[in-house]
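Contributing new complexes? Match this layout with 0SF.
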Amino acid sequence: FGPFPYSATGIVCRMTKPAALLLNQETAQVIQAAFRNANFPNITGEKSMRLLGKVAYGLTNIQVNDLSIEQSEVELREDNAIHITIKNVTAIFKGTLTYGYAGAWFLKFFHSVDFEIDSSIDLQINTELRCQKDKVAADASDCYLAFHKLTLHLQGDKEPGWLKQLFTDFISFTLKLVLKREVCKEINFLAQMLANFVQDLAENFVQDGDIKLDISLASAPLIKANYLESHHKGLVLYKNYSGAFSDSVFSPSLLTESRMLYFWLSEHILNSLALAAFLDKRLVLTIRGEKLQALFEAEDTEEQQKAVQMIFQGTSYNDSVAKVWSLSHPQISVQTEGTIVKSLVAVEVSIFPPGEDPKMVLYIEKETTVTIQAAYAEKKLILHPVDSRTEFKAFKCTADPNGNDPSLRNFLQTIISVVGIPEVISSIELTLTSLLNSKGLHLFDIKNPEIITREGYVIVQLDFSFPNHLLLGFLEERL
Ligand SMILES: CCc1cc(Oc2ccnc(N(Cc3cccc(OC(F)(F)C(F)F)c3)C[C@@H](O)C(F)(F)F)n2)ccc1Cl
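Output block (do not edit by hand):
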């Protein structure tokens, strides 16, 4: 049967061990939030003591005070679990202890005193990543607390020995159960909150206006010893149009394990995005003023001056406009050389002589094929055309109605290829960069990102350092 059919997968995200280790440095903040968020119920009970008869006790408004977390280890386990081990969490719980007993002579004696409990705890959290309703679900219910120490300190020095004994032998057992239940419940809750947070952030990231990418899971996340991997549908949704599944096949060997983060994207996604952008009338560019002048006066030759005179007939560039747009859905394919964009493009120049009606002076249709290499540096997307070829499809010029002036055509051919295509690409570059930054990509500290193109797919691989205000911000919202 060949490799497992990933055909429903358009995008694969791989996070390797180095990324997990870096993210693990934020675990301490999550655990601290879990302890702080946990609400501990009052613990009440009674115990009949030898000399004292029935003793009633209550631990009320238990709160965590100081919490210190030394180091936490993270391990990716092949059985689809992320094991986090945190040793020697020291926590001080504070609250009020009320105790009393009805003495033999019906003497009711109740006393309440503030307490502090010193504790040292080992945490073991085995989180499973699952696919639930097509989304990443984090299940951290496999959670253990081991108490090394749990000592009660009562306020003031009157600490009846029998009470400490009662606490040590009896109350602490219940207390451990309550602490484990509440802390693990909160950790599980936060784990799912984090998964939802990433999912929401990601969904917002891959949406703009009516165009969005369905990044719901195509299969359950995979965890290997050195990386974890999620497979997403990667379907382009545009209004009621939704792209068909792609047939490009992902296989794990396409990604290495040396970088922190990998995104594998099938070329089908780029193609569908181009179609959606075309349907959304985004593939239109208007050039006027000095931009237009720069295009038409890129090279100062005799032929150029003649052509400009013929086309603009003395109208200034400020009263002229060039419009460039795709006549058909651009076809995008990906090769090792780069991303190849093939599109039938129309260029129309109109002039608005003052006091006269506007008139269209030039119309050209060309089949353009451009090979583009992409890079990301200084928080900007860089698109570099490495090769372009064009083929005339139609040509109309009022100044030369029957098109028998070859010098004009040659001139236009040159400026479209030499300056026209680069101008269009740089405007796409600026638009995509501002789109990425509007999604907050510039907030991430991305290190040495590589955009690699191969037949049928693109791989984006990178390292990152974690802007902890991102996680802190998330946790503050939660607290
Ligand atoms: C925007 C990155 C991205 C996320 C996708 O969808 C999801 C949904 C849920 N989890 C993930 N994970 C991958 C991932 C890695 C790094 C960043 C990120 O999203 C982000 F929110 F940080 C970014 F959008 F800001 C998502 C995590 C998934 O691999 C795991 F680990 F949960 F299994 N991706 C699909 C495609 C792309 Cl390009």
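Reviewers usually confirm one structural detail per submission. For this one: The first strand starts at residue 11 and ends at 16.
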